[in-house]
Amino acid sequence: MSRARADEEEYWHSSKFRAFTFDDEDDELSQLKESKRAVNSLRDIVDDDDDDLEKVSWSGEPVGSISWSIKETASSSSSLEGRDTSQQKGSSSYAALPKQVSSYSLSSLFKGRNRLPSLPSLSDAFSDTGVKNYAPELRRPKAEYKDYSNDWSPRDTVRRMQRGKVCSLERFRSLQDKLVLLDEAVAGHDGNVITAVLIFLKRTLRREVLFRELEVRQVALCHLIHFLKETGEQKLLLDLLRFLDRTEEVALSQYREHLNIQDVEKKREFLKGCIGLPFSAEDISHIQDHYTLLERQIIIEANDRHLAMAGQSEIFRKYPRKASILNMPLVTTLFYSCFYHYTEAEGTFSSPTNLKKTFKIPDKQYVLTALAARAKLRAWEDVDALLTTKNWLGYTKKKAPIGFHRVVEILQRNNAPVQVLQEYVRLVEDVETRLNLATKYKCHDVVIDTYRDLKDRIQLMAYKCKVERGSAEEEKINSLLSNMQIRWKN
User: Fold this and answer.
1) Average pLDDT of the residues in 285-305
2) Share of residues in the chain with pLDDT > 90 (%)
3) Do residues 57 and 68 touch, judged by C-beta distance below 8 A?
4) Mean model confidence pLDDT for the chain
């Protein structure tokens, strides 16, 4: 034991740590190796032969118990402080300290068998195979130290940005270096890198210089325009478009500002001012229609709100308004007008025919919208009048620009009676479509008459099984089947 204690004292008075240097070896891996050597040296001087013996401290408590661990930790800390003080006074004072014979051993501290199972030993932690396998990865390659250097070329900088590396662009100070960096970013075909370089140039170059250089670099120019639109930098975008002499784009960009105006009166005045902007002939008509529509909506909204609050209109009492008509699309405004103002004269602003004439709404769109509005009100007479036309001889006939099959679908969605549906199902020209619609919506008379016209006796007999027994439809089928004047095809 004296030899073990002497080796222990030699360990505590020796030091294997080196001073700080800038060498690559003085890193986390070297520190890990030094710590491991220190632990291995402790394991060499530990007496492993006493592991099988139960060790008892001077207080009579078994070594490894919780109370023993607390006391030994406190005593070891005080002994270390005493040794540090004695080293300052001289080696003679250290020799005068009394030596206590104890069963305390370092083996019980680092690999004792009486310790709690949940507390791993220090030697086991450093001897773990996982540490041995992954310890070499703790060393950072020398190439990684160049991440923070300033000697990257524009091409290398772009490549590193494409790989997601953090690169500082502040080192590119001259205009030539910045333009080379932009050209390399465009050549890399990476939109994120191009946008990042453009943000850097926008921040570090004057607008005139930036616009002049981007004018000959169309790819980068398109990226910057899109970026300014997305971020809402309207002033810089307008300056750029004016520099490029793109007058129509300048006008459209200014017109886009109406989306940010909430007050309808201010928006109306803004749209009125946009009419004089240099739009194309097609666009200027749309701007004019937008202004006219908003002006009509303001008038209709004020009048209808007054009528609804006064309770003077039956339709507003029966079908209260659910939302304002302001800033609604043209089709929504037409539906609203067909729903609440269908019978008004053409001279009023809220008349559907006035809206159709003012905004040149096609017949197909008008019929589709008006049919949906009147069918929702179950005004079947208005539906019939909407689809009835009169020729120059005075004859009337049904006509549907949207097709009678769509008329049937709209009427069915609004729970139209079978008699109304049958009238329009008969007008479907395609025989197969007519039979499918009549069968789907149980228009039995249409199915029976169609099979009669086709002289298809087999299909008529098969359809007889689908109608109720004793019904008028069954009697009609029996009458047709017994009619000897019909020349059946099968």
Assistant:
1) 94
2) 48
3) yes
4) 78
398 beta partners? 388
Q: Are the C-beta atoms of residues 408 and 437 closer than 8 Å to each other?
A: yes
Q: Full-prediction pTM beyond 0.70?
A: no
In this predicted model, what pLDDT tens digit does every residue of 118-142 receive, in sequence order? Answer: 444 444 444 444 444 444 444 555 4
Which residues, 6 or more positions from 63, have their beta carbon under 8 angstroms from its beta carbon?
54, 55, 56, 57, 103, 104, 105, 108, 112, 114
Bridge partners of 388?
A: 398
pLDDT tier at 422 (50, 70, 90 boundaries)? very high
Q: Are 193 and 162 in contact (CB under 8 A)?
A: yes
Is 70 exceeded by the pLDDT of residue 308?
yes
Looking at residue 296, what is its pLDDT?
Answer: 95
- Cα 26 to Cα 20, 36, 37, 116, 343, distances in angstroms: 7, 15, 15, 36, 93
The phi, psi pair for 56, rounded to 5°, reads -125, 135
The HSE-up count of residue 472 (CA atoms within 13 Å, CB side) is: 3
d(CA 296, CA 290): 10
Amino acid at 43: R
Alpha-carbon radius of gyration of the chain: 47
Q: Are 176 and 146 in contact (CB under 8 A)?
A: no
**What 3-state class would DSSP assign to 54?**
coil
For the segment 138-152, what is each residue's pLDDT rounded down to a tens digit? Answer: 455 544 544 445 567
Please give the full DSSP string across 139-168, using - where no structure is assigned: SPPGGGGGGG-S---HHHHHHHHHTT----
Give the least confident one: 159-173, 358-372, 406-420: 159-173
* pLDDT (0 to 100) of residue 355: 95
- When pLDDT is cut at 50, 70 and 90, the band that residue 92 belongs to is very low
User: 20 versus 410: which is more confidently predicted?
Assistant: 410
Q: Which helix (H) or strand (E) holds 389?
A: strand 388-390
3-state secondary structure 197-266: HHHHHHHHCCHHHHHHHHCCCHHHHHHHHHHHHHHCCHHHHHHHHHHCCCHHHHHHHHHHHHHHCCCHHH
Q: CA of 379: how far to CAs of 11, 145, 313, 383, 425, in Å?
A: 105, 81, 17, 7, 18
CA distance 450 to 448: 5
Residue 128 CB-half CA count within 13 A: 11
Cβ–Cβ < 8 Å for 277, 254: yes
Give 389's strand partners. Answer: 397
